[in-house]
Amino acid sequence: MTRRLTLAAMAALALSTAAPALATADTVKLRISTPAVESDWHAKMLTVFKDELESAAPGEFDVEIHLNATLFKQGTEPAAMQRGNLDMAMISAQDIAKQIPAWSVFTAGYLIRDPEHQKKVFRGDIGAEFYGMVEDEMGIHILDVGYLGTRQLNLRTDDEIQTPEDLAGVKLRMPGSDAWLFLGTALGASPVAIAFGEVYTALQTGVIDGQDNPLPTNKAAKFYEVTNQIVLTSHLVDGIFLSMSGKTWDGLSDSQKEAVTAAAEKATAYNDENRIADEAELVSFFESEGLKVYEPDREAFRERVQKMYLESEFAADWPEGIVDRVNAVE
Asked: Which helix (H) or strand (E) holds 137?
């Protein structure tokens, strides 16, 4: 009897120690890569995503957040997800347009009007259509769009910029894709492709004359320390798309997909609310840091940028009537 009790106790102990191992084996690991710095809102929103997912589905997910492009370089995340080497990332319309030219419409300056317009476009029929392209052609599932901010020019030079002609010869950093570089040219500058993590040093040493980013990113990356002025061109209402590898997405149960989608929406809402509030307050911050902040002749920029896009090879790839459809979203 004693021997039987001993064996039973040993069996129970073995089962109890095996249970956590089984749970761990069933846990879905989600590795997220982003070039965002820790203090930026679209880095913080990933923590919101992680916490919301843990709350909704305790123990079902193991979310790893890799900031500062420590896991994959900026712009390489889509390919990494397609290869199955990365589960999640925040990707741009410019990244997507490299593989799906129709997406270049969302890289065009002066199209999306504001954050509310952006949300309505991508959560409506247009978003469903374009998200479907990404799923079908790239094998990537887009969870939601987050407001990345309205992009402004940030220059280390002192010359006042009022029209695109004033940017002639200005070396403006842009991310390294044709869509980004074209936007720099459309603005009137001489675009230079440099990775985000190298921008601060490039500004400091004069390798470039300026960069364009939303004001919160400018503050988070401390670009204001090595620049002299901010020109409020408001040339692009930018978005970032919280996305998942199609392989990872397809491996989730229906309830897990619901939890992931809900967590993504909570995360983007957190990002949007804080980023919009930041933008409203940052002009006075930059002025207190000694930067000159002003509006140029935006209509002159809008006219040049729109004309160049409509005459470009990019427009040839846009679905017929898409600009009118986006403009019609209220």
From this structure: helix 125-138
Question: Does residue 91 contact residue 78 with C-beta atoms inside 8 Å?
Answer: yes
b (16+ CB within 10 A) / e for 5-25: eeeeeeeeeeeeeeeeeeeee
113: exposed, middle or buried (Cβ count in 10 Å: 0-12, 13-18, 19+):
middle
> Does the CA dihedral 312-316-322-324 come out positive or negative?
positive
pLDDT tens digits, 24-46 = 458 999 999 999 989 889 899 99
Would you say residue 145 has pLDDT above 60? yes
- Return the closest-CA partner of residue 88 out of 284, 248, 261, 233: 248
C-alpha distances (whole Å) from 135 to each of 78, 100, 139, 141, 217 are 12, 11, 5, 5, 29
Q: Return the structure tokens found at 252.
A: 């989730």
pTM over 0.85, yes/no: no
282 Cβ contact list (under 8 Å, min separation 6)? 215, 216, 218, 219
What distance in Å separates the CA atoms of residue 179 and residue 108, rounded to the nearest whole number?
Answer: 8
Taking only the tens place, the pLDDT of each residue in 166-225 is 999 999 999 888 888 999 999 999 999 999 889 999 999 999 999 999 998 899 899 999
**Going from the N-terminus, what domains does the chain have, and what CATH number goes with each?**
27-328 (3.40.190.170)
- Give the containing element (helix H, strand E) for 29: strand 28-33
The residues near 183 (Cβ < 8 Å, ≥ 6 apart) are: 107, 108, 109, 174, 191, 235, 236, 305
Query: What Å distances lie between residue 127 and 236, 245, 304, CA to CA?
Result: 18, 18, 27
> CA angle, corner 58, sides to 31 and 14, nearest 5?
95
Residues 232 and 111: beta-carbon distance below 8 Å: no
33: β partners: 66, 89
Is residue 242 a contact partner of residue 264, using CB atoms and an 8 Å limit?
yes
